[in-house]
Amino acid sequence: QVKKQCNQKLLIRMKTKCVPCSLNLDTQCPAGYTKITNGTGTPDCRYYLEIKKTYTLSFPGCRHHCVKEFEQPECCQGHWGPDCMGK
């Protein structure tokens, strides 16, 4: 039995929105993603507050890192088509 389907595993990474670190404890990753940071997340971003449409203030903030494993269907070498039958 020759293997025709050789799916590729991909890891999709994303970061949540930057918010004040004290508010980031309860931040969840989108559906299907797994949170890989703990507590308040990573303090590696800045968020902005607009004051009366005249000033914008920038503050250090936190965000979480999330990952999702995705399997991309692919045919093994020497096979092709929707059912990977070609030789």
Break the fold down into its secondary structure elements and pairings.
Elements: E1 8-15, E2 34-35, E3 42-51, E4 55-63, E5 65-72
| Cα-to-Cα separation, first versus last residue | 14 Å
Tertiary shape? elongated
Beta strand %? 35-45%
* C-alpha Rg (nearest Å): 21 Å
Low-confidence stretches: none
Q: From the structure provided, what is the oligomeric state, counting identical versus distinct chains?
A: single chain
Helical percentage? under 10%
Mean pLDDT: 92
Strand sequence of the main sheet, in spatial order?
1-5-2
Summarize the helix and strand pattern as letters.
EEEEE
When the domains are counted, the total is 1
Number of helices: 0
- Give the helix/strand class: mainly beta
Largest sheet features: 3 strands, antiparallel
* Total DSSP E strands: 5
